[in-house]
Design goal:
alpha+beta, 6 strands, 51% helix, disordered N terminus
Amino acid sequence: MVKLKDLKLSETKTKTKMKKIILKSRFLLLGLVLTLAVQSPVLVLAQKEGYLEASKIIFYINKERNTYNLPPLKENLLLDQAAFEKNLDMQKNHYFDHVSPSGKKWLYFILNSGYKPEIAGENLAKGFGSEREIVEAFMNSPSHRQNILNPDFKEIGVSVLQDHNLLTVYFARQQSPSIFESNLKGDFRFYLQSFLKEIIQTSLYLLSFKQ
């Protein structure tokens, strides 16, 4: 019979071992799809010094999508800004995670940029070599791969903080502007017609007194 004390001791040893593995790593990746509170595992890879270009990250991600007959993701400036702000926040507050030490979640940066997502995801990387190598690392991780190959995503935003080896990639699809605009136009047309109808009726009523 396993005692509760033994279970706690085993759990403590496991956590300590995992912490040592993470601390020894120099190359970390994190990925998350917007499926509410689902955290992806940390990947342990070898660090390489390098200089990344955001445009090349997008190129290699779209190259992977093309392999699976998926349409390319279009770069969105609001998502670029959101990724940049996330990088700055991680650098300023000394963390590397989807959630800041103060509890600020990654989706905050997307919403704060003015982007209105219907669905979104985040990939993070720390320490990197070439753009191709980082995307290959993403593809070798199920959660990061899921973000890259998600057919529901339509747009992408990338930011690289070179001095601190931080990379943030946002994947998203906006709330459909066409539906919003059509509803807005429909409502405007309805109120305009009602307003003009009231004016005509009022004018006819006033004219009846003059006669």
